[in-house]
Amino acid sequence: MRKWLASGERVALATVVSTWGSAPRPVGARMAVTEAGGVAGGVSGGCVDGEVRSRAEAVLKGAAADLVRYGVSDEVAFGVGLSCGGEIEVLIEPLGQLHLELLAAIESDRPAVLVSSLRQPLGASRLLSEGSEAAAWLESERPERRDGMLIEPFPRSPQLLIIGATHVGAALCALAQSVGFRVTVIEPRAAFSAAERLPTAEMILRRWPDEALKELRIDRSTYIAVLSHDPKFEDPAIIAALAAGPRYLGAIGSGGTHEKRLERLRSAGIGEAELATIHAPIGLDIGARTPVETALAILAEMIAVRSGRSGAPLRTRQSTPASA
């Protein structure tokens, strides 16, 4: 979009605002279309995108913003892009000033919430920044349709702070970066914090963990994994992390190791409510044995926390309709 805007092209946006049944793209999925026919993103998986593109081009030529519902039966769904049937409703509008402000916020890693009207006049109507009104939406990280409005949170991209450049820490660094986390590794020991061991880390801090945590920006987009296996590193780090209030705080070690850790933290004055927020032993129970498997279990737990899910097998989950 930046390339298009720099060249002076006008842009229309198509956004999925509701889904029913087995829709292929979630609420908030977008497609951008230019006057010259350029396309980025998508709202489905086939011919629906072609129809939406045509309507977007019409909007760029002066047609009014539109709200369109597309429904496809299971028998013909695959051929037109809705691979399992279902319906989607799509808002088609010209890119406006609020979208430009949102783009600038995303590029500068500032959280924002876009509110779009699904009643006349259609389209983006407000952009909320950090504050009490935006906080709950930024916490959920999920768009929602409510009272004729689409409310879309755009939090900071997730930040993972790894305390301890162990074998598990190195594996977690690579896995987390591959799914969109910005990863910082905090490791005061030079032998373990060499850049070649952590090639995907955005930043490596050779500092005592508690000191580094006090200087970093930590908020509800922050995830912290304490992997050091050493109380003189991990206890001060956990105390500093609890004070900062990240979305996720996990610590490695067996159940017995964690009980001893809790006793030390209680002696340091940490209350039971705070102690209960620590994910330990860290990770989901997948029978992990190798460092990479352990890292995968940790990452899976972080994603489950981010999504508000239990981490249970999908086959045990009752089927629920898509969001409308």
Which properties best describe this structure?
324 residues; alpha/beta; Rossmann fold; 3 domains; 34% helix; elongated
Describe this structure in words.
It is a single chain. By secondary structure, the protein is of the alpha/beta class. It has 3 domains: 1-95, no CATH class; 98-155, no CATH class; 159-307, Rossmann fold (3-Layer(aba) Sandwich). 34% of the residues lie in helices and 24% in strands. It contains 11 helices and 14 strands. The protein has helices at residues 2-6, 47-60, 74-77, 97-107, 132-140, 167-178, 209-215, 231-244, 255-267, 272-275, 291-307; strands at residues 11-20, 30-34, 39-41, 66-72, 86-94, 112-117, 123-128, 144-146, 149-154, 159-163, 182-186, 203-205, 222-226, 248-251. The protein has a 5-stranded antiparallel sheet. Strands 12-11-10-13-14 form a 5-stranded parallel sheet, with helices on both faces. A hairpin with a 2-residue loop joins β8 and β9 (149-154). It is elongated, with a radius of gyration of 23 Å. The mean pLDDT is 90.
Sequence of strands across the biggest β-sheet: 3-2-1-5-4
Topology as a string of helices (H) and strands (E): HEEEHEHEHEEHEEEHEEHEHEHHH
Proportion of residues in extended strands: 15-25%
Q: Supply the CATH superfamily name of the largest domain.
A: NAD(P)-binding Rossmann-like Domain
Mean pLDDT: 90
Might you state the CATH topology name of the largest domain?
Rossmann fold
Question: How many distinct folded domains?
Answer: 3
Gyration radius, to the nearest Å? 23 Å
Spatial separation of the terminal alpha carbons: 28 Å
Kindly name the structural category. alpha/beta
Provide the CATH architecture of the largest domain: 3-Layer(aba) Sandwich
Shape: elongated
Please describe the biggest sheet, giving its number of strands, its sense, and whether it closes into a barrel: 5 strands, antiparallel
DSSP helix fraction? 25-40%
Count of individual beta strands: 14
